[in-house]
Write a structure and sequence with these properties.
single chain, alpha+beta, Beta-Lactamase, 54% helix
């Protein structure tokens, strides 16, 4: 009985000792040290957040200074123009057209969207662009300039009608569809039509000698270059940690009119609105917001400041901020590292106090547990027992050595398997690439052979057809001369025969141009593209008269092109006829010519646009292929192919942009005549 009692009491005393040792080792580390760490982490987190707010405040200062610099620079440039000898000489000695030309040239040099001269009565004397109406003359900056102040600048909000009075293009650019935004103030509006303008005016002299004001402005709506410049200044490369993203935004009231915040990949968040809390604080109370805020679809460390117009009214906001998540992740990672370090230190310290006890009851438990983990698949499990002179210690060390060897063999097998898989993937990928190249080359060879065969056949067929055509035309003339006045009785029939023979001749000529384009290269000379387009309109007037088509022309090209005039007319007429056919129910035909550079080479562009049925992406890909036509019975499919050949022969290019039910625009680019 005594032995039995001893065998029962021994485990109880062993457990009691184990628990007391654990309590002595763990209580200070698991109670006192966690409290100290918690207080330190709380204080560090507060300082970290304050540093972020301080940084975004500095970022807002840089953005504010850049906007102020834009305002100042615009005013200085307009003032410099009004005082320049060049401006005064043109104003006093040359015609009003020369003043207009100088204003347009200066507007482009300064980078303004509009520039005009207004007298004391509010009448526009001259403008850089043709105004569509009468712009307002009672702006505070204009009154200040007319009253004697040298230069006046500021931000003003133009209504859509006020922008349209200057330029419909500006009015359209200011228009933004509002995007439903979470947390924003509810609104019934669906569109933002007003425009935020950097507005500047300088005192000048009217042509008659009276006081006047030189007024210019830059529309900030959808001015992505302006907002991207702010973003590049504030958030230069490596100014934020990896994963963070700096953003800048310009608000008109609470609507984003210029931003690099992304609504989703590839689209900026134009038309989205700021949250109600930020709007109330910044626009309602006039405070600068420096705090975390929800921006479109994520949380940002944000800074907002109100923008005031020349009337002293808060009309918008300037915003900069950076993504908050990377910093939260960094804080979480830091706290996690501290916690892990605490756990590691705890795990390393406790065994010091329990080493003697563990040397008695833990070795066998560790060996058993390790074997169990290995059996369950964890080959990295080890006893990690120190070498000792007793039998249990030697068994544990030997077991760890055997497990190391087993894990090393397993690692080598996995590496060999991965290497084999990699080689198989590489060889498979190389084979697939080779097959794709072979297939593409085969298709190209087949197409080349087909086109060569078609060219030869076409040249032969065209030659054979020309002879019967000549005979038919000659005999038709003989019949007219033989029957004399009797020919008038069949005048309609004779005319139809002439037209059809002429049509056959034209088709034959197009076939020959496609088959042997080098034989049809005519004499090249220099032309103004606008005059060529103008000469083409009478040739297609009979087609324009058949339907209600409004022709809009815009000739802004100042350069000349070097090309055979007949060939260039053929290209333009072909594009115009295609555009007319695409608008059977009427529409707008737009003909534009302007200077354009391509790959650093100067040249001109001729655009032919329509508002017709448009083309799908599949048709656009084939539209320049020989014999491809969407007109069915009316077309030969050679017009665009021949036009492309003629243009490419002059080192030019034809491109097309089209969408179904949205019309098409063909652009012909030709190098400038040297």
């Amino acid at each position: 009985m005594a032995d039995r009692a001893g065998s029962i009491d021994a485990p109880v005393r062993g457990q009691s000792v184990r628990f007391r040792l654990l309590a002595i080792a763990l209580l200070p580390m698991l109670v006192i040290l966690p409290l100290l760490l918690g207080v330190a982490i709380y204080r560090w987190n507060a300082r970290f957040d304050a540093t972020l707010i301080s940084k975004v405040n500095g970022d807002l200062t840089i953005a504010h200074q850049y906007l102020a610099r834009i305002l100042e620079k615009t005013g200085v440039q307009i003032r410099g123009l009004s005082l320049s000898f060049r401006f005064r000489e043109v104003e006093e000695r040359e015609t009003l057209a020369a003043v207009v030309e100088l204003l347009e040239q200066s507007r482009k040099e300064i980078g303004l969207d509009f520039l005009y001269l207004v007298d004391a009565g509010g009448k526009v004397v001259a403008s850089s662009i043709q105004l569509k109406g009468a712009p307002r003359a009672d702006w505070p900056i204009i009154r200040s300039a007319l009253s004697g102040e040298a230069t006046s600048t500021g931000i003003d909000i133009f209504t859509n009608d006020e922008l349209a009075a200057i330029s419909p293009v500006l009015a359209e650019r200011a228009r933004l569809d509002l995007v439903p935004t979470p947390n924003a103030v509810p609104t019934d509006r669906s569109t933002e039509t007003s425009g935020m303008v950097v507005h500047a005016a300088a005192r000048a002299t009217a042509p008659g000698g009276g006081p006047a004001a030189l007024v210019g402005g830059i529309l900030l709506n959808q001015n992505l270059e302006f907002i991207d410049t702010i973003n590049d200044l504030v958030y230069r490369e490596a100014s934020l940690p990896e994963g963070s993203q700096g953003t800048a935004t310009l608000f008109l009231d609470d609507v984003r009119i210029s931003t690099n915040v992304r609504l989703f990949e590839g689209r900026r968040a134009l038309g989205t609105r700021v949250s109600a809390a930020v709007r109330s604080a910044v626009l309602g109370e006039g405070r600068t917001w420096l705090d975390s805020a929800f921006v479109v679809n994520d949380w940002y460390i944000s800074a907002y400041e109100p923008l005031v117009d020349t009337y002293g009214k808060r009309v918008g906001m300037l915003y900069v901020g950076f993504l908050q998540k990377p910093f939260n992740d960094a804080k979480f990672e830091t706290v996690l590292i501290i916690a892990l370090a605490f756990i590691v230190i705890t795990a390393a310290t406790v065994p010091i106090f329990l080493r003697w006890a563990q040397s008695i009851f833990m070795p066998l438990e560790r060996v058993t547990a390790t074997i169990g983990e290995v059996e369950s698949g964890n080959l990295s499990a080890r006893t990690k027992l120190p070498a000792s002179g007793d039998e249990i210690g030697r068994v544990a060390v030997h077991l760890d050595t055997l497990l190391d060897q087993l894990q090393e063999r397993d690692r080598q097998l996995r590496e060999w398997n991965e290497e084999l898989n990699t080689r198989v993937r590489d060889r498979t990928r190389d084979l697939e690439h080779a097959n794709l190249k072979l297939e593409a080359t085969t298709k190209q060879l087949i197409m080349s052979e087909k086109l060569a065969a078609i060219g030869e056949i076409t040249a032969g067929v065209a030659h054979e057809i020309n002879n019967p055509i000549a005979v038919m035309q000659g005999n038709l003339d003989v019949i007219r001369s033989v029957i004399g006045d009797e020919a008038d009785k069949a005048k309609v029939e004779f005319r139809l025969l002439d037209e059809q023979i002429h049509r056959i001749s034209q088709i034959v000529m197009k076939l020959l141009q496609f088959a042997r384009p080098e034989e049809y290269a005519g004499y090249i000379e220099r032309h103004a593209p606008g005059s060529v387009v103008l000469d083409c309109l009478p040739l297609v007037q009979h087609l324009l008269n058949k339907t209600e088509i409004n022709v809009v022309r815009e000739d802004r090209a100042s350069r000349l092109v070097l090309m055979n005039r007949t060939e260039l007319q053929q290209v333009v007429i072909n594009l115009i006829v295609n555009a007319i056919h695409a608008m059977p129910d009427g529409g707008t035909l737009t003909l534009r010519s302007f200077d354009a550079d391509r790959d650093g080479n100067p040249g001109i562009a001729i655009e032919v646009g329509d508002t017709g049925i448009g083309m799908s992406a599949e048709i656009v890909e084939k539209v320049f292929d020989p014999f491809f036509t969407s007109k069915r019975r009316e077309g030969t499919g050679l017009g665009l192919s021949i036009s492309q050949t003629l243009v490419k022969r002059q080192r030019g290019q034809i491109t097309v942009e089209s969408a179904v039910d949205a019309g098409s625009t063909f652009r012909v680019w030709l190098p400038e005549a040297s």
